[in-house]
Amino acid sequence: MTTENVVDPQRNVKSKELKALGFIIFLFFPIITVTSISAYGFVIWMIQAFGGVVAH
After folding, report:
1. CB atoms within 10 A of CB 46
2. How many angstroms separate the most distant Cα atoms in the chain?
3. Rounded-to-integer distance, Cα 51 and Cα 29, Å
4. DSSP 8-35
């Protein structure tokens, strides 16, 4: 085996890890954040719709 064959799989793994990290940072977290904030707003809206506005 040459050194080139040993380094290539490591580079391939690093590339896959960076792509996975980019997916998590730029797609997964924003989608989860927007979804959770929207769901929270919907829950508050439903509570107010059926239970009335809660006084402080």
Report:
1. 10
2. 74
3. 32
4. HHHHHHHHHHHHHHHHIIIIIHHHHHHH
The pLDDT of residue 17 is 94
Q: How far is CA 44 from CA 23, 37, 51, 56, in A?
A: 30, 11, 10, 15
> So what's the pLDDT on residue 1?
54
End-to-end CA distance of the chain: 73
> Burial, 36: exposed, middle or buried (Cβ in 10 Å; 0-12, 13-18, 19+)?
exposed
Distance, C-alpha 21 to centroid of its chain: 10
pLDDT in tens, the chain (56 residues): 555 555 578 889 999 999 999 999 999 999 999 999 999 999 999 999 999 887 77
